[in-house]
Structures are given as structure tokens and as C-alpha cells.
Amino acid sequence: MKIAISGKGGTGKTTISASLALSLAEDGFRVYAIDADPDANLASLLGIEEKVKPLAELEEIIKKKVGGEGGLFTLNPEVDDVLEDYAVDFKGIKFLQMGGIKKANSSCYCRENSFLKAVIDTLLFEKDEIVIMDMGAGIEHLTRGTSRGVDLMLVVCEPTVISMETAGNVKKLALEAGIPRVGFVGNKVKNEAEREFLTRNLPGEILALIPYDDLLLEKSLTGGQPLVTDKVKELLKQIEKIVG
Ligand SMILES: Nc1ncnc2c1ncn2[C@@H]1O[C@H](COP(=O)(O)OP(=O)(O)OP(=O)(O)O)[C@@H](O)[C@H]1O
Ligand SMILES: [Mg+2]
């Protein structure tokens, strides 16, 4: 099962990604947790204290795998060993930090992007583990080719009108990119009115509505892991129903 998590800034993507990964690992599943958000903080929500070097910054490895400066380079390098060597093992989770996709106007974007794409390809098409990918607000790490490997895009939304607009846009983008299923998670739901608002306005299948939790705000002020692990069990059940 391969799940990508996206949505508007600050809606709770990373909280939900970390909670899902930890819950699944706790239940004995083998899980890859991938931080594909350039503004990365999944590691700290998982509880990983060491500094993790982004794959995009493994310059020597990238050179070795993809090829040298200029000239010819390999579009589909073999990166299985990179996943083994650079994934951080933590509580039954293998964690990888992707780092930023380079834009076309930077000189070395081809090599690094080929490398990152090969990592995503390998994770999505060759690994048996569950893959949970925190995509951040964008889905740049997914191409038309890799999107087919994603079973489900979870779009995390807050009960606001603006969040509904973004939800519609992300859904459209995801479907255009070739992701077969898109499901919505309403987060930070404070009352019945917000529940109704989400139920009425989310543009597709709602997999869970997660209540607002004051403890999370407290933890984000005092440090510690703000998670909704107990609340994602229901979400996992829904995901299993549709992805199997
Ligand atoms: N159910 C919830 N109740 C209360 N606060 C929440 C809830 N879910 C997330 N938060 C809080 O909202 C803030 C943003 O959460 P998080 O970092 O997971 O969002 P994000 O979508 O990953 O943000 P970004 O777009 O910056 O990556 C955090 O302070 C988090 O603790
Ligand atoms: Mg985040």
C-alpha cells in the first residue's frame, strides 16, 4: 500500500503522516516513511532526533549512480542499496528524507532529479513495505510515471472555505498526474457545524474527520511529539477498505 499525503500548508499533513506511520509500525507492519516536503519536519514528528541528510544532497552518491558532470547520465540508476544504506531505522519505520527537487534553471537538476525519481520509483514499484509519503503542499516528487505507483492520495483539509478550494485543486492535479484514488481527511474539527461543513463541501470521498486536539497546540509550544496516533486508527480502517 502506497499513500501520498498532501493538502494546504499547516492543515496537519505531517502530523497525520507521522501518526499513520507510527500506528502501522506499532501494529507490526513494515513501513517506509518518506519526507518529500522540501520544508522537512517529518523526522522530528516521528521522534527521530539525529539530523538526517537529504538524499538530494548526497552529491558523491548521485555522481556515482547517475554519472558525472555534463555528458551522458543514467536516467534509471539502480538505487536499492541507497535505500538500504541511507534509510534511518526507527521503531520499525525506515525513514528517508528526499530534499528539494531542483528547478529546470539550475545547472545540475537533471542528475539529482533522476536520482530522486529513481528512489521514488523503487519505493513505489519494487518495495513490499507500506510507503507513507508526506508530500508537503506540492506533488513535485511525483511524475506521471511514478504517480501510477501511488494507491491513494490523502488530501488533508481544515474546515475553511479556502481549504475547500485547495482541496479541489489538489484533487484535480492528483487525478491529472494519474493517481488512481483521492480521499479526504478533515482535520482540526472543533464542533458539529464544522463537521457538517466538511461533509457538505469536501469534493470527494471523506476517509476520516479528526477532531481538534488542544494537547497538540500545547505540545507544539512546549516541544514533544504532537501526534494523533489514537485518532488515525479509524482512518486506517477506511484506507484498508479502499486500498486493501
Ligand atoms: N487535530 C489537530 N488538532 C490540533 N492541532 C493540530 C491538529 N493536527 C495538526 N495540528 C497542529 O497544526 C499545526 C500544523 O500541523 P502540521 O505541521 O502537521 O501541518 P502540515 O500540513 O504538515 O504543515 P506544513 O504545510 O507547514 O508542512 C501543528 O502545530 C500541529 O500540532
Ligand atoms: Mg508538514
What does this molecule look like?
The protein is an alpha/beta fold. The chain has a single domain (2-243), classed as P-loop containing nucleotide triphosphate hydrolases (Rossmann fold). The chain has 10 helices and 8 strands. The chain has helices at 13-26, 42-46, 59-66, 80-86, 109-126, 144-147, 161-177, 192-201, 214-222, 232-243, and strands at residues 2-7, 31-35, 88-90, 93-97, 130-134, 152-157, 182-189, 206-211. The protein has an 8-stranded mixed β-sheet, sandwiched between helices. Helix 8 links the parallel strand 7 and strand 8. Bound molecules: adenosine-5'-triphosphate and magnesium ion. Magnesium ion binds at residues 13-14, 37, 41.
Record keyword descriptors for this entry.
244 residues; single chain; 8-stranded mixed β-sheet; 8 strands; binds magnesium ion; binds adenosine-5'-triphosphate; 10 helices; alpha/beta; Rossmann fold
Concise summary:
The protein is an alpha/beta fold. It contains ten helices and eight strands.
List the helices and strands and how they pair.
Elements: E1 2-7, H1 13-26, E2 31-35, H2 42-46, H3 59-66, H4 80-86, E3 88-90, E4 93-97, H5 109-126, E5 130-134, H6 144-147, E6 152-157, H7 161-177, E7 182-189, H8 192-201, E8 206-211, H9 214-222, H10 232-243
Parallel strand pairs: 1-5, 1-6, 2-4, 2-5, 6-7, 7-8
Antiparallel strand pairs: 3-4
The structure holds adenosine-5'-triphosphate and magnesium ion.
